[in-house]
């Protein structure tokens, strides 16, 4: 049934199917200046007030759980620039039983990141 709903959604432009996985673009801010990517340029123009708050994202995660989402990922820009928010949301999603992951360029990775991620599941 879900493939039929997906096909109908694509053909009509109306949403009949709920997603199975969600990727949250936490921000376009980035600590790298890669030539092939312009996230960092867009991120430098972002207004912090336009970003989804942690509290609102927690509410959204609850809704997603009701939709039977199975995967939740966080990307950016650079998700680790928002360390506390990223790990707080990943922990909530893990507690809901979702498969989680985040995207990073690797510059901010250290032992603490791996240990903290392991702690939250």
Shape: globular
Mean pLDDT: 89
Assembly level: single chain
Low-confidence sequence ranges: none
Task: Return the structural class.
Answer: alpha/beta
Helix fraction?
Answer: 40-55%
Radius of gyration over all CA atoms, rounded: 16 Å
Please describe the biggest sheet, giving its number of strands, its sense, and whether it closes into a barrel: 3 strands, parallel
What's the structural blueprint in terms of helices and strands?
Elements: H1 2-12, E1 21-27, H2 39-44, H3 54-66, E2 71-76, H4 83-95, E3 99-102, H5 111-119
Parallel strand pairs: 1-2, 2-3
Helix pairs in contact: 3-4
Folded structure, characterized:
With 121 residues, the protein is of the alpha/beta class. The model has no long low-confidence stretch (mean pLDDT 89). The protein is built from five helices and three strands. Helices cover 43% and strands 14% of the residues. It has a three-stranded parallel sheet with strand order 1-2-3, with helices on one face.
What's this, in brief?
This protein is of the alpha/beta class and 121 residues long. Helix content is 43%, strand content 14%. The chain starts with a helix and ends with a helix.
